[in-house]
């Protein structure tokens, strides 16, 4: 069944003939070179694991963080992908000193947390499709605040909302939280991940220029509030199959932990403090529906088809599984030992995928070095 918000939007969509990438009727080839900019608390983990599944099952080479981490270093200044130690096996060589991965075709996919910088991203993965997912800023702010336990770190009385206490003096509270590594992703955290420097948060000219640049640089900006609709656009853009985008939701919060009503005064404070993110969201909320329009009149039918497949997969995999809760009051599924390979793929988290992919890459590069040096 089509979401009511989607139905209202589709009432204003007039089918048009077109020949661009989103509406071309001609057969296309699946795209296997892509960069997903993963942004905290936007539904990005669900997307990332879906993409990792896609890459692993097609033996694509993912650019992974080195060491045991599953995120790239993200500081106030953008990291450099041309620093070898940041990317897993970037500088791996054979006995002659020749790099291994360029000979194996190079890296094809990037999905782990990393700041967007088109110039250095293209050094790593040339000719890639770029996409990301963003979320309505008020919902994202509240979700981030509670998920990363800022509500426990901000002193407040029993009858006070810690987010409201924080917003009374966000600068002072941010300073107190400066040693918390998640703090830099809080204020305008979506735009920060997409390359906006913190000193430019209140510079309207720079913000608008950055939005314009992203409009040209991003092939698709998905919206968390229209999750399934977004994946349908991604499927068409990438020439993938419905099965490629099927997912089982991850990190769902307890119902009692979902706060959907924010008082008007608090809303205003949040939006003023996070002024860059709302501008970002408003822009791509408008362009999103242009892409839906270009998809064509079959959008509603395809959305129903996709949701039926997703529901079928969820019911099949969860019939013998159980939901558990972590310290963030978010859920994850635990499957029995005899669960199918497909169900394990659907429920495997980001850390587990990274470990699995690293293991395959080690085996592949070792075999190649042995062959080349033999």
From TrEMBL:
Does this entry carry the keyword Transferase? yes
Task: Return any one Pfam family short name.
Answer: Gal-3-0_sulfotr
InterPro entries in UniProt: Gal-3-0_sulfotransfrase (IPR009729), P-loop_NTPase (IPR027417)
Question: A GO BP term, please?
Answer: glycolipid biosynthetic process
Give the superkingdom in one word.
Answer: Eukaryota
* Membrane topology reported for the UniProt record: Single-pass type II membrane protein
- Major place of localization? Golgi
Keywords for this protein = Glycoprotein, Golgi apparatus, Membrane, Signal-anchor, Transferase, Transmembrane, Transmembrane helix
**Region entry Disordered: which residue ranges?**
1-25
Q: Compositional bias (Basic and acidic residues) at which positions? A: 1-17
The cellular location(s) given in this protein's UniProt record come to:
Golgi apparatus membrane
Q: What are the annotated GO cellular component locations?
A: Golgi membrane
Molecular-function GO terms, alphabetical: galactosylceramide sulfotransferase activity
Q: Which family does it belong to?
A: Belongs to the galactose-3-O-sulfotransferase family.
- What is the name listed in the Swiss-Prot or TrEMBL entry for this protein? Galactosylceramide sulfotransferase-like
Species the sequence originates in: Patiria miniata (Bat star)
